[in-house]
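Notes, p. 3: input format for complexes.
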Amino acid sequence: MSIYGEYEDTLIQVKDLMEEKLQAYQRLVQFQTGENAYEHLLARIKTDESMREKCRRKGIPETAESALGTLTDAIGVRVICSFVDDIYNIVDYIRSFEDCDIIEEKDYVKRAKPNGYRSYHMILGVHTKDKDVLGRQPGIYYVEFQIRTIAMDTWAALEHRMKYKKDIPNQEILVAELKRVADELASCDLSMQTIRELITNV
Ligand code: 0O2
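Output follows (202 residues plus 0O2):
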C-alpha cells in the first residue's frame, strides 16, 4: 500500500488539474503574443520511496498524515522559463487560481540562497470536493511549484547531483565554484532579458 493510501486518486486529480491550468495558460499566451509562456512543464507525485525517505529525514512517521498533512510537496510542479520576467507572469497567473490558498511564497530569484540557488517557490492549498487526510471536506491538497529559468534549472540539477556525491574531493572549492557560476548565470539571465526587451520594442 502506498504511503498516500486512499488519497492517491485525488492527489493525481489535483496534479492533473494544475498541469491542465498551466497548459491552458501556455496556449493563451501563445495565441495572444505568439511566444511561449514557458519552455516546459514537469508535474509529478513524489514517489512512495522518496516520500518515505523524506519522512525519515524529517523525523516524522511514515504515514499519509505526514505525507499530505505535514509535508507540502507530495505534488510538485516545475515550470522552466526562458526569461526571468516569465517567472513573475506565471507567479501572477498561479496567484489568480480560484479555490486555492497561497500557503507560502519564497522568492529565491530576487534573494538567492547563500549557495547560489535561484528559483521561485510557491506552496498552494488546492480545495477539493474530496475529503483530505485531516478529515476536512472540502479537502485541501498541497502543491509545491518551482518556477525558474533554464539556466537556474541547469545549475540546480548539477548542484543536486553534487549533494549526493559525498566523496567528491575539494568540496569547498567546488561549492565556491558553483556559487560563482550561479552568479554568472544570473547575470546572463539579466542580459537575455534585456536583449528580449530590445527586440520586442523595435
Ligand atoms: P527534495 O528531495 O527535492 O524534495 P526551509 O526548511 O524552508 O529552509 P524547505 O522546506 O526545504 O526549506 O523549502 P525550500 O527551501 O522551498 O525548498 C524546497 C525544495 O526546493 C527542495 O526540496 C529542493 O527540491 C529545492 N531546493 C531548495 N534549495 C535548494 C538548493 O540549494 N539546491 C537545489 N538543487 N535544490 C534546492 P527538498 O525538500 O530539499 O528535497
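The longest strand covers residues 139-149.
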